[in-house]
Here is the input.
Amino acid sequence: MARLHESELGDLLESILPEQRLALVKLLGSDFDLTALTEVDEAIRLEIVEQMPNEQIAAAIGHLDSDDAVYILEDLDQEDREAILAELSFTERTRLRRALDYPESSAGRRMQTEFVAVPPFWTVGQTIDHLRDDEGLPESFTQIFVVDPTFKLRGVVDLDRILRTKRQVKIETIMRETNYPIPASMDQEEAAQLFEQYDLLSAAVIDDNDRLVGVLTIDDVVDVIQEEAEEDFMRIGGVGDEELSDSVVDTSKSRVPWLLVNLVTAFISASVISLFEATIEQVVALAILMPIVAGMGGNAGSQTMTVTVRALATRDLDIHNAWRVARREVGVGLINGAVIGSLVGTVAGLWFNDIHIGGLIATAMVINMFAAAVAGITIPVLLNRAARPRRLIGSLRHRRDRYDRFLLVSRACDMVVCDWIAGLRPPLLHKIDCYVKVN
Here is the structure.
């Protein structure tokens, strides 16, 4: 077990049965690497931690990086958390409590509070001696931060620059300005976007007074990106935050709400169709072809909606290019509607040996896919615009993930698009009704 990396030990814990899992942790005792709990599902992590005495957890947390310690502590009950913190040293306890005070899913929760900071008047030689002599420094780091007496961030020096500079040179002459400090209250996904945009390996984290409080590293950002991608994918499917380790009951609870919402919208669509029951009885072809028109329109709307929601989430779509993107999507809808409509109309005309049915279905397909394109881009944009004031208010509090809101909007748009398209059927059915009466 000692040779296993914490991620490999985490995979092992997830692959074995619960009773085997607890037996393994008990067998390892104090040799159990608590870092492995950051690699497993939340349900498994809580299950293991609940079986461990607080003294053992506190002893293990004292050897973890602060970001890993916070990751484990934040899911515990307040009583257990305080009991564990009470076992730690004053410095460690204060450091972890400060990180836990930041909003969930913020950069402050993800940052490491262990970093190297020096004053600007130190020389390179003094800095190197400090790095050699101070045993309380982080195990690994790539940058040295420069701070003033009030701990306000002034700049940063890369280690390679330190090694290439003579000992007598002062730090302030070789430091560079930190252009992208991350506020501790910033959402972790926005921080990840900064890493992606500026190709950062690490970034200083500052509080509201611009004082250095921690550092965010690329390994933590990779975890954020993976977690957000998994959560986004699950929410798009309407399955919430469920994990493979969740019980049958918990999994069912997370899926039922979306199924009920879809059931309601399905009844609404069915009620619209029922208004033309007599017409459908006279022209059986409608019952066969309607699902094709509605299904293709729904798929087209989902395509446009997915592109739009993604562009909003990544800030590629804004007021400056919204009209251009809208024209493009509407154009795509019309072209695809004409192509698919011609194909469906031809097949329908030959199938039922009636050119009028084929023409009507082709026209319905074009209108349907045009409406799907319009709905697919305008609904997310309008909902995003309406949600902006709430997002600004939420940023002053413990706000929810901005991207989560986009994904919920995405799911809502999917249902709205389908229902809008369902509402386009009555005009078509009215035309066919007239056609039946005339003939």
User: Anything to note?
Assistant: Residues 43 and 246 are 7 Å apart (CA to CA). The domain at 117-217 is CATH 3.10.580.10 (CBS-domain). Residues 389-439 have pLDDT under 50 and may be disordered.
